[in-house]
Amino acid sequence: MPVRRWSKRSKRRSSAQSLVTPQDDGVHVYLFWSPNKERYLSHTAAERVTAEELCISAAEAVGITPLFHVLFALYDPMSCCWYSPNHVFHPNEGSCLILHFRMRFYFRNWHAFNDKEPDVCVGPLAAHCLAGTLTSPISSQQAKYDFVNELFPMEKLNSEEELSLFKNESLGMAMLHLMHLALQTGSTLQRVAKKTSFINCIPKSYAKHISEDKVLTKMRLRWMFERSMRTYQNNMEAKKPDVKEIICKYIYALECLAPRFGSETFAVRHLRLGGDDEHTSPDASRDGGAETVHELMVSANTGLQWREMMASEKKKSYHKNAKSNQWTPFCDFPGIIHIAISEANVCISTQDNKCMVEMSSSQEARSFISLLDGYYRLTVDAHHYLCHEVAPPRVLLSQANGLHGPIHDDFVLHKLKKEEAEEEACLVRWSVLNYHRLVLANGSMASHKLFCIQHKDSVFTLDGWQEKFSSVKELTNTLKDYILKSGTDSYTIKKCCRPRQGELSNLLVKRRGIDGSASTRTLSPNKLELCFQIKYKDLILVRSHLGFGTRTHIYSAHLQVGQVVAEQEDDLNGDKYKKIQVVLKVLEQSHEDITSAFFEMASLMSQVSHNHLVFVHGLSVNGSENIMVEEFVEFGPLDVFLCREKAKLTPRWKFIVAKQLANALNYLATKGVTHGNVCGRNVLVARRGLEQGTSPLVKLSDPGIAVNILCQEERLERIPWIAPECVYSKAPVGIGADQWSFGVTLLEICNDGHLPMSDATLPEKERFYQQKGKLLEPSSRDLAVFINKCLSYEPLERPHFCSLLRDLIDIMIKSAASRYIPQRNTSSGSLHRLSQGNFGMVTLYMYDPANDGTGELVAVKSLKQENGPLPKYWLKEIETLKFFDHTNIVKYKGCCTEMGGQVVQLIMEFLPFGSLEKYLQKQEKSTSQCLLFAQQICQGMEYLHSKRYIHRDLAARNILVKNDSLVKIADFGLSKYIPENDTYYRVSEDGDSPVFWYALECLKLNKFSFRSDVWSFGVTLYEILTRCDPSQKMNVNVLISLLERWQRLPCPADCPSEVTNIMTSILEL
């Protein structure tokens, strides 16, 4: 943006006088601080300007670097709304607009002073702490301004004690304020206090209260403050603190005073959560028809939360409400897939849920989604946007040209070394110091070379070259025909490395204890770790041969899943065993050489679970027969269904199917899994969706034999679904192959199951790829552009699946596709019992809303009927689980009741490998794998304690295994909430207790605290490292006696000394 558009104003007459607000037409941005004492930057030219351009100019004026300017935004104090980066201002409209340049995206505990909250850092290597930027003068001035003007959500003061504490804390912060000024000016506290009264450093409401006090009261307060000031002055002279330390303490005190400091709250007219029948009606009312409103809260550490409140409470939204109106988590930022907006209506889509809200205005709606969008880029993917309506122009520019953000040289070198093995590569990133410069890094030699690219007025020029380019992509493509010279060194460019989905760098803020590593860990195939080892005698062949797969025969069968109770025998015609229909894929005996690959594929697919993936039950081996058992899907392959029903299919039907397929592939991509065989034949139709009031449901089947194992003829046969780079390569396929296949399959859906290329001969197909041919485009221009992005012959230029899913939904909205989803009755079918304990049993169910066999597997926990009335702890476990949302805590799905509410069943996610105790007893696991499990348990417990809950039953038997790299904490029946001012909980009720895992104070005094959970973790760690070898049982008296004699558990074999020391420190009295 040209500097000529701006005029700088400094209207400050003195520190004690207020600023003169600009009256000229235009946009005036207020700065809390600048090095040359300027307070306003004014844009009065006739040209339009975006909010992002204003922010960049303001950031340059106050010295904020390109890495951290994304934390700031423009705020309108009159409308109390934030502007999205792409908002366009038109100064020639004859209006004067005053905006504040403020930090909007705030991460609590960036100073790491609070050991009860997770701290944060920039980048996975924690090399650059946020504190370096957040102690800048503009950030500290904003914090002071907010405190004095009370622009933060303050808790309601309900007693004289709380009011007195607030006053004392305010005076303490006023002292820190003056200390900060003294260090900045090199003066003493007494001299600073003469120019700046402490009255001007406390909240205005408190200052007003002091002004109304009696003269003697005010004199006594000033005398006490001056006495404290002398003490602090002596401490400053002795300890010599620096400016950063003081401002860190100031902001830490502000966080303690306002627990919701840094969060934003939005009142919404209507809220509807998809998939939750209790909250599907936005017009629900309570208490005789009183109007019900909702609030949404967004914070960096907890994501998106909501609560219900009465309209009469709306004006009190910044105060603590009753316990019944506690905040309920909806999702964290990594769980968001897409955000759509229409006027004031916002729809937030996650992997398995949806939140639809109506805001009070379209401006507030854009303010809300720009907040979610910004936090997503800060915590998940720095180069992705969730909603096009608020996408920052620079992010769009970077995505179109394959540009990286201002990443540091360490990350540049790391990425270039990964790419250098194939061919000479380059990388273009934004400068970390200059907002109008890019850097081209070439990695063809051991010491990479940097070339600068200037960006001015939408034109890009390489330093030392007069040629001008309209885009960086055009510049780098041109450079491929040249040799770059730097002194005696020569450099060539063959390809440009684009950002990858969710790539780790210093652009991301790492939230320790929240951003778990398990969610980003890739799955590894292991033929020994299947969901079920199915006995061949449980498979009953009931139908003829269905057809052929790739080197497989396909049969229909019934799988015997368990014995039924007596009253159900009549429904099953007297059969004592329940059966479900399945599909058998039998590997041809002539291909026994690929048995290992067949097992690996089955293992990989058994470790993933999604509504739009065909469920793999497991493997069965019968002599020389290797059989994969998977879910039966009623209406068969999608390509056949499209041809058969093409007269009945609507564009909306096809969009829904394409979206479901993209959802499944996006899920696989987040797990690091490449399918490798996406096509219409491999997508199965589970629900037709042709009847009135219904929608289709499709599921992606297993990929079959891996592409790199197929012969050349088999790979040519798969053209055009197979990606061009896979035809001649024997290397494992990358995620780009699925992106190509999805584009072809989408074209197949548009053409009702037929593609012209599919009927061509093998030489014709091969020639088509060699000539880089183009498939016939659909009539829709938007859809044609979308498909062409997928069908790029350069794999790195194909969009990520998160981008494909977002753009596909945008096309759906543009096409005016109906978003109405009908209400459906729910039903379920029991498959078999998973486990049984002292209080109840857990059963595997198929949750089937459409009652057509297309649902998902869930685990249902219920009490034994002979245990009598429903205990309080059972209902409490349900309420507790609803409150938690963490990668390493089992996910709550809902609950259901029977017999008039006398029987309540808890519905949870299904974790196929069962308890960690049995898993370790059966599987040979390395020490590093065991320590990974222990780390994840720590992360889950850290989250649990941050919510002030203690588990009280932490043991390996209560840890569930999802796959070989992810475990989750379960069984919260004994958990307790520790109030804010308490440190322990004394148990008074009777009941069975896991004494072997209890600390001494629990056994003797029935006192439970956070530390007692730490003890239980130590015992659980011992279990894990000994692979859950059964220990000798002891009664409680013997156990207490041993503990009092300082006898401890013996050191496990092969246990690293560092871990032994940790375990010893945990198990101290």
UniProtKB/TrEMBL annotation:
Every FERM domain range: 25-383
EC numbers on record: 2.7.10.2
Pfam families attached to this UniProt entry: FERM_F1, FERM_F2, Jak1_Phl, PK_Tyr_Ser-Thr, SH2_1
Active site per the UniProt annotation: 953
SUPFAM superfamilies: PH domain-like, Protein kinase-like (PK-like), SH2 domain
An example Gene Ontology CC term for this record: cytosol
PROSITE patterns (UniProt xref): FERM_3 (PS50057), PROTEIN_KINASE_DOM (PS50011), PROTEIN_KINASE_TYR (PS00109)
Identification of the protein by name: non-specific protein-tyrosine kinase
Biological source species: Hippocampus comes
